[in-house]
Amino acid sequence: MTAADLDARDPLREYRSRFHTDDADPVVSYLDGNSLGRPTTASIERVSTFMTQAWGGRLIRGWDEEWFELPITLGDKLGRVALGAAAGQTVIGDSTTVLLYKIARGAAALRPDRTEMVLDRDNFPTDRYVLESIASELGLTLVWIDSDRRSGVRTADIADVVSERTAFVLVSHVAYRSGFLADAPAAARVAHDVGALLVLDLSHSVGSVPLRLDEWGVDLAVGCTYKYLNGGPGSPAFAYVRAEHLPEFRQPVWGWMGRADAFAMEQGYVPAEGVRRVISGTPPVLGMIAMQDTLDMIGEVGMEAIRAKSVALTEYALELVRSDLVPLGVEIASPENADERGGHVTLDHPDFREVTARLWTRGVIPDFRAPSGIRLGLSPLSTSFEEVRIGVLAIAEELRGRT
Ligand SMILES: *Cc1c(COP(=O)(O)O)cnc(C)c1O
Hints:
InterPro entries: Kynureninase, PyrdxlP-dep_Trfase, PyrdxlP-dep_Trfase_major, PyrdxlP-dep_Trfase_small. This protein is α/β, with parallel strands linked by helices. Helices cover 39% and strands 13% of the residues. It has 2 domains: 3-30 and 302-401, Aspartate Aminotransferase, domain 1 (Alpha-Beta Complex); 47-298, Type I PLP-dependent aspartate aminotransferase-like (Major domain) (Aspartate Aminotransferase, domain 2, 3-Layer(aba) Sandwich). The chain has helices spanning 3-9, 41-58, 61-67, 70-83, 96-110, 125-138, 155-161, 184-193, 213-216, 291-301, 303-325, 352-361, 385-402; strands spanning 29-30, 90-92, 116-120, 141-145, 166-172, 197-201, 220-223, 238-241, 331-332, 344-348, 364-365, 367-369, 373-377. It has a 7-stranded mixed sheet, sandwiched between helices. The chain has a 4-stranded antiparallel sheet with strand order 9-10-13-12, with helices on one face. Helix 1 (3-9) packs antiparallel against helix 13 (385-402), helix 5 (96-110) packs across helix 6 (125-138) and helix 11 (303-325) runs parallel beside helix 13.
């Protein structure tokens, strides 16, 4: 089927018109919705109304009326529409890096007699560095999985290294490089079999792949909101703490906003009841506004329909890559089986650094991941099949231009 046919039959096609496009500087193919999602027109309006009416109008009263609870009310909504998490376990908080530190330290504290943390060599840099910092801080040992760069962490890889020494296993549900989709419920079982916890990084799966954190037995999780949730540059991340762990859960940054009865200004830190204890200081309210429109769209459409579009987009991209790019020496560096793939596809070619720079000047925007990868991030609500076609053909042209 042609891109035009696929677009015409796409049940989500109407949603593309909900995203803002800048006619003064047109992007003809945006293939980086997994790094920075596009803004919706509704969110431009919502942020502007927030400035004038909520901030400008309610002023300090806004804290009592809405903002103090917003990290939790918005967390509950995210949990409901995208995480498969019942209310009271999800909070919007700090950056992904900072929340991952707080959650991973909290995970280690839930298993105080254990000495090892398991992670993989190809996890996102922040995930590796944060665990290195915790290892040096607490004297714990990092147990590394040497995962395949073109696929990812398989359940058997985890089973090979966990033991009664393991405090927790950290896995990126969708690998940032290859797009490999880990088997989260199986990873949870393997961790639990030895009494360890599973911490998931959902940065590249939330809003793209259906999640059932409660059902899968995931213990703790963090994820980004500026990728598939379109929260805008630097919008705050979310954390999930499974209800059964909340009474014992302690994170290391004790601030007034996470204390029981914050406004009593009492002596001594006592963690708040429930998921509020994940919060440290004043929440970044302004950064929580834009994502709300994407959560509304996800609630309307449902994650199953979003995943179906996502699979169709990546399948179509791979079909074009096989016909037009593989003959030019491009290698597919993502799983070719859709059940093992999230919402992006990575391609390898030694010239891709220069090719990406030239693509950007012509309004074709994938991203480059060293040493030689182009990632096509196909955000299901905002990306058309036509954009995929334009993008892949532009890569072919740039590669041919060089030879
Ligand atoms: C994007 C991403 C992050 C980003 O962390 P920040 O603190 O927001 O910069 C972290 N982990 C993974 C797996 C990511 O994909």
